[in-house]
Amino acid sequence: MADWQLLSITAAVIIGIVVMILRLRINPALSLVIGAIVLGLATGLGAAATTETVMTGFGDIMMEVGLLIGWGVLMGAILNEMGAIAKLVDKLLHVFGPKGVPYALGLTIGTMLQSIFLDVLLVMSAPLARRIAPKLGKFGTAKMSTALAISLECGIVLMVPGVAAVALAGLLQVPLGEMLIFGLLVIIPTIIVSIMIMNFLIHRGLWNTETDEEPPLEESHLQESASSGEASESASGRPADTHGIVRSAGAGRSSTSSRVGLLPHDVRTAGTRGAKEPGLLLMFAPMLLSLVLIASGALLNMTGYTPEFMVLLSTPVVALLIGLLGTSLVARLTIGTKRVEAAVANGFKESGQILVLTGAGGSLAAMVATSGMGEILGDYFAASTVAPLLVVWGIAAVLHIAVGSVSISAITAAGLLAPVAPALGLNPVLLALAAGAGSLFAVHVTSNTFWLLQSMLGQTTRGTLKSCTLGVSVASIVALGFVLVLSIFI
Length: 490
What we know:
By secondary structure, the chain is mainly α. The chain has one domain (3-489). The protein contains 22 helices and no strands. The protein has helices at 3-22, 28-42, 47-81, 84-112, 118-132, 140-158, 163-171, 176-206, 209-212, 219-236, 254-257, 280-303, 308-314, 316-334, 337-371, 373-381, 386-403, 406-417, 420-424, 428-438, 448-456, 461-489. Helix 2 (28-42) runs antiparallel to helix 3 and helix 10 (219-236) runs antiparallel to helix 21. The longest helix has 35 residues, at 47-81. The two termini are 35 Å apart.
């Protein structure tokens, strides 16, 4: 088959996947598998080889990241049950003060809290951010909204153990330790620079408090607004899922969240708030230990010194298991076994669709490689290191604009170009980070994050287009810039 025919068929399949997800409302995982099957049959692979490739691709990626995603989701569910976010934001405000808290909160969310689902993290942190906003002056709402949007979206795709970052690492066969270290090198300056750029624009006329913010609500009405915002979201047919995966464990519990003393959209186990909760350092210590172990293993590999016990402890699946067990132990000793069991049950429910979606992305990637697409793209891009990074960023950006799913666009773009990395001799971590950066571009009205930020932070649609759509798009471009700089050195 001629190169142009294979390219045309692959492009048509990708467009078909987008149409199935966006117009026909077919589940993203099903759409990716259907696309992989069609690609195999259309390129002459044959029925038997096509089905075998789909199953092999699914199994291979599950072997790489299945347990990692499961451990991360469960750890995030337990942290959420312990009330980690409320304590963290209060501490950051106390330490850094009003001017520094957008940066501090952004960096903390982007680099430390990826194991907590984005929707869960947003609905827990947004009410606290809204209370902080008046302390930042006239543009407090704009600054806090922008910082939240940038850090939430960057963390999920650029930083381990974010589910999209783990999936990208698995698809592109990037050691998780490398993804953690190089992701950290990209995400920290990306968050800082992006917030600085947006704050500069906000103070130079970008933000109009009269047209970009809703009239202030009394605290007593805040919970009602959040609950009605979720109801109207459902009624209007807006996407039920920010990343094409799942809603948070507490979505739809408006009757529970309206109780006195609870945060809006509180996703912790009903009827159990107010029990003794652990200190901030104790809550996060096990998760931080697991990340230190993973990073240590990567650094030791670079030096060539790898003692046997560190090989075991720094293996990502073991390191995250240690973090999960430690987090579970802390929770059992402080908030009780029943609440931990409820959190774990919710985590298992939430992880299922993530695993299936990631596996479906693996099926598509395997089919692209088997069809010979990787060799063709490798020949086209072999002359330059920069070109494939720009292309993978562009593919992910276009897919995200069309589908509205950060995870789906990143996984699909990485899957398409995974076979290119060996042909180029290009470090695949660069492709993973470029795909993650591209998938951030233009978070807009097809995203649940957009509407949650609007309703929970008191913004108009026009204001959310500035703080969320523009803010995260700036972060997408800034992240690409740092990935290109990183490509010079690795």
